Amino acid sequence: NPAGLGWLKRPELFEEVRVQTVDTTETIEVNTDPTATVLGATGTIASSTEPKNSFSPSFFSYVYPAGKWAVGIARQELFNIDNRTSSSNTFDPSFFGGLTFDGRGEIDTEISNWIVSGAYKITDTLSVGVSAVYSIMNLDSRVANTFIDNTGFLVDDGDPNTPCLVCGIEIPLYTTKIHDTDSDLTYNLGISWNIVKQVTVAASYRKGSKFTVTSEIAQFFSNGAPFFEPAISDPNVIGPTTDVTFHVPDSYSLGV
After folding, report:
1. At 198, is the secondary structure helix, strand, or coil?
2. Which residue, of 28, 90, 168, 215, has the fewest CB within 10 Å?
3. Residue 131 burial (CB < 10 Å; 0-12/13-18/19+)?
4. Do 216 and 239 meet the contact criterion of CB atoms below 8 Å apart?
């Protein structure tokens, strides 16, 4: 609440450091119920998530009060995450030749706010404040889907006289990526009322930032089989981009 700056009597310097420790998770499930899978296929499903630990300065501010006025600057790390996720689905060899479909995703993203605030004491008990917030989002992500065809169920040309050169080899199927940055300018509003010496009521509104980044199709496999059409050379498949929007929600607060 920027209105709270008005109650300071002397300059204030504040620093906050965030230490984040997270665990890796892994799940493996073997499905042997033919009625619970596609076309009665049994198989193994595995997934894992590997977020990274972090140590970073999450908040820094300096406030200078002068009479009825107070001004301040700050940097806030609103969001910072670096994570790796993978999943694997392997069919029983008696179904689809034991096909294995894998998916691997990684994301490294940060949202930081650079803030300039001002507060004014209307009376000795009532203060109002406003902040201009410049938000920056940096996003790097990649999702890669691959498959392994051990018996040539999908990739073999069907000619018994020619070997299957890609059987048992991990083949890129479909890959999307985001490597982009966007920014937005928003604001915070606040009011603080010291009703009596021991009781203060405060309210604030924070306008959420909005970011738009570009997702690109980086890879699409096709060996001519109808299941994987259109072909890899089709310009309508490789290269097209899609805008992805992230919206930090508006927030309201009321405290006593």
Report:
1. coil
2. 28
3. buried
4. yes
pLDDT tens digits in sequence order for the chain, 256 residues long: 888 888 788 899 999 888 877 777 777 666 655 544 454 455 667 777 777 777 778 899 999 998 899 999 999 998 888 888 888 888 776 666 678 888 888 989 999 999 999 999 999 889 999 999 999 999 999 988 888 887 777 777 667 777 777 778 887 777 888 999 999 999 999 999 988 888 899 999 999 999 999 888 776 665 544 444 444 444 555 566 788 898 989 999 999 9
The one-character DSSP state at 249 is P
Termini Cα distance of the chain = 13
Tokens of 54: 């972090």
Which helix (H) or strand (E) element contains residue 201?
strand 199-206
Q: In sequence order, which residues have a C-beta less than 8 Å from that of residue 6 and are 6 or more positions away?
A: 65, 68, 69, 70, 119, 120, 121, 127, 128, 129, 192
Helix (H, G, I), strand (E, B) or coil at 122: coil
Q: How far apart are CA 34 and CA 226, in angstroms?
A: 27
R_g over Cα of the chain: 27
Residue linked to tokens 């972090």: 54
What are the CA-CA distances from residue 65 to residues 13, 71, 73, 121, 156 (Å)? 12, 6, 12, 11, 75
Residues shown for the chain: 256
Q: Whole-angstrom Cα distance, residue 249 to residue 161?
A: 61
